[in-house]
Structure formats: structure tokens, C-alpha cells
């Protein structure tokens, strides 16, 4: 990863921060984005200790102009972009029948539209420069299974999975750009766990459903991302690598 430059959206906490750290440890320079400038600076200090240079860009992925500015700032700072990790997400538990239009739009805008704005902005740079980079989109297992209370997030993540596969074909064949996804299951110490596993009972039931008998760690998701971006995955395109301890296969049939 030495000399390589990676953009990690939502890189100031949880899975995004773990990904940025892992890439920095491997020698990459990283750009982390997030809405909270203070949290970004704290994360920068932590990631910089792992190695490499870190650029922070406070922004909301829902704003396509800011996304374009972030891409420009990355090129100015490092002169190149090699990897994009679309990790920024928004979620909360809400029964489908109670979800407001704004609630639906907030999550669709962050997860589906935000991923698209970043992907197109970075993809255009690669295409113009003749530089085949690689993208990893963070999705979730309920993008293809199901679960109550996450209709907005599930629909958005399923869209991101479709984006992954569509671009793997379109940009893979024309430009050699690889696009893959990683689907975490229940991961401790993340915004997702905070929202989706709000009490001890929810954690206990989830742990019981995981064949490996525990929640995952953000670093374990980061390992999968690092692999997909590395030369070891040079022939992997359009794949979705699940990191869930086997949970989604373990749904009781009755
Ligand atoms: C019902 C809710 C709600 C809740 C927000 N809304 N929280 N409705 N129940 N708990 C509604 C609001 O009432 C409002 O609608 C609309 O959503 C927008 O809310 P805002 O707070 O104004 O939006 P905003 O500040 O933009 O915040 C976006 C957010 C927030 C998505 C609501 O949670 C957020 O910023 N999240 C970012 C971090 C995050 O979610 N990380 C977890 C990702 S985990 P009205 O109608 O009232 O105006 C993940 C996958 C995990 O994605 C998979 C694990 C297995």
C-alpha cells in the first residue's frame, strides 16, 4: 500500500476508522471524511500514529459539491487517488409503517446517493487519468436477507450492492476499475451496534445467532477491505465478502 492514497468516507469512527488505520499501517496515505470536524481531528491523530499521512475533510456525503471539493483536495494534497472506501452510512431502527418521508430520505441520501456521488466523482478522475483504481463499498447482510426496522437502510444497501455489481461490469470492462463490497454482520463498538443492538438482551440474542458465538470487531472488517484492495485480490471484481461469523446462513428455517 506504500505511496497509495485511499479515501475512507465516514472515517472518523467505528468501521471506517478501523479501515483507515489498517490502510495507514500498510503504508497508505489516507483521507478521512465525516460531518464532525472535532471527531475527525481526534481520529487523524490516532491514524497518523499507525503511519502514513492523513488528510481530514469535514463534509456530508449528501452534498455532491462538497464531495467534488474533497476529491480535488485529495489530488492537491497527494497527487493521486488509488482507493475509495464508501463506508459512510446512516441508520436507525423504525417500524416501516412509522417511518417519515424525511427519515426515509435521510438514510437513502446518505447511503445510496452519498455512495454514488463519491463513486462517480472518483471514477471520473480515474477514467480521465487512465488510472484503474479500486472501490470497496460497505454494505450489510440484510441487503439480501431481511430484518425488521431497517427498511430504509436495507433498500439503500441493496442499491449499493447493485451499484457494486453494475460498475464491476461496466467500469471493469472499459477501464479495469475493480468494484467490490464487504458485508459486515454485527460488529461491536460501531454506530450500527449502538443503534441496532440498543440493550443487553438484543446483544445476547444476536450473539446466540452467530455460529462463532461473538460480535465481530471493526479490525476484522478492515482486514477484509485491505485484502480486496490489495494485489492479492487483483482478479476479484463484483464480489461481496461477508464478515459476519456465519450469522446470515444460520437463520432458523422455522
Ligand atoms: C424515527 C427518526 C429517528 C429514529 C431520525 N429520524 N432518527 N425517525 N426513529 N430513531 C428521522 C427524523 O425524525 C427526521 O424526520 C429524519 O429522520 C431526519 O433526521 P435528522 O436527525 O434531521 O437527520 P440527520 O441529522 O441528517 O441524521 C441522519 C440520521 C442519523 C441517519 C438520522 O442517525 C445519522 O446521522 N446517522 C449517522 C451515523 C449512523 O447512523 N451510523 C450507523 C450506520 S450502521 P422528520 O420527519 O422528523 O423530519 C449501518 C448498517 C449497520 O448503516 C448494519 C449492522 C448489522
From TrEMBL:
Biological process terms in GO annotation: bile acid metabolic process; fatty acid catabolic process
Ketoreductase domain segment(s): 4-163
Protein name: 2,4-dienoyl-CoA reductase
Organism field: Calditerricola satsumensis
One of the Pfam families matching this protein, by short name: adh_short_C2
CDD domains: TER_DECR_SDR_a
UniProt keyword list: NADP, Oxidoreductase
Gene3D superfamilies (UniProt xref): NAD(P)-binding Rossmann-like Domain
Amino acid at each position: 500500500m506504500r505511496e497509495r492514497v485511499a479515501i475512507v468516507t465516514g472515517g472518523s469512527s467505528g468501521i471506517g476508522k478501523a479501515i483507515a488505520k489498517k490502510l495507514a499501517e500498510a503504508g497508505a496515505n489516507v483521507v478521512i471524511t465525516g460531518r464532525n470536524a472535532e471527531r475527525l481531528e481526534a481520529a487523524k491523530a490516532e491514524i497518523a500514529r499507525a503511519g502514513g499521512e492523513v488528510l481530514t475533510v469535514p463534509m456530508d456525503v449528501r452534498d455532491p459539491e462538497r464531495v467534488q471539493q474533497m476529491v480535488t483536495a485529495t489530488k492537491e494534497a497527494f497527487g493521486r487517488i488509488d482507493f475509495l472506501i464508501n463506508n459512510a452510512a446512516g441508520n436507525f431502527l423504525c417500524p416501516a409503517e412509522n417511518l417519515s418521508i424525511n427519515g426515509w430520505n435521510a438514510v437513502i441520501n446518505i447511503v445510496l446517493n452519498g455512495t454514488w456521488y463519491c463513486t462517480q466523482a472518483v471514477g471520473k478522475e480515474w477514467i480521465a487519468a487512465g488510472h484503474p483504481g479500486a472501490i470497496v463499498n460497505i454494505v450489510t447482510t440484510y441487503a439480501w436477507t431481511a430484518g425488521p426496522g431497517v427498511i430504509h437502510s436495507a433498500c439503500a444497501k441493496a442499491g449499493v450492492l447493485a451499484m457494486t455489481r453494475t460498475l464491476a461490469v461496466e467500469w471493469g470492462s472499459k477501464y479495469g476499475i475493480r468494484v467490490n463490497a464487504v458485508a459486515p454482520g454485527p460488529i461491536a463498538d460501531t454506530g450500527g451496534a449502538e443503534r441496532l443492538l440498543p440493550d443487553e438482551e438484543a446483544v445476547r440474542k444476536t450473539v446466540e445467532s452467530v455460529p462463532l458465538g461473538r460480535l465481530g470487531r471493526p479490525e476484522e472488517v478492515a482486514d477484509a477491505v485491505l485484502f480486496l484492495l490489495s494485489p492479492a485480490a487483483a482478479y476479484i471484481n463484483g464480489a461481496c465478502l461477508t464478515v459476519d461469523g456465519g450469522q446470515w446462513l444460520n437463520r432458523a428455517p422455522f
